[in-house]
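Today's session is about reading a structure prediction critically. Students often jump straight to the picture, but the first step is always the sequence itself: look for stretches that repeat, for charged clusters, for runs of hydrophobic residues. Only then move on to the predicted structure, which in these notes is written as discrete structure tokens rather than atom positions. Here is the chain we will use throughout the hour.
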Amino acid sequence: MKRLLLLLTLLIVAACTAQTNTELVTAMPTFEAADHDQARDLMRQYGCRSCHVIPGLAGPDVHTGPALGNFRERSYIAGRLPNTPENLVLWIRNPQSIDHQTAMPILGLTEAQARIIMAYLYERT
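Below is the predicted structure for this chain, in token form.
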């Protein structure tokens, strides 16, 4: 009986303190609207589709990296970073600085290019 009471207490506390994805999304700062054509061109140029399934961008059904749909609704980027526009730009530009074991390479994108892709992922997916 004590174990059941403890379990119920822990579940209630967890339910009361959990932050939902909706709360994270509404707290997300705004960013400049994406140029979808330019974003798709950049993702083709840098080969993003060779590892990721990206809504709105044709390519093979690959699963090397995670699918990038519903990006705005995610709590974390790469399972580590809180999902914010600035963190996504950082990840796109230099994923190895966040996780030195990641398979995602440093592609040499400029900050402006990473921002275009970031905006696309938040708007389009």
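Discussion point for the tutorial: DSSP finds five helices and two strands in the chain.
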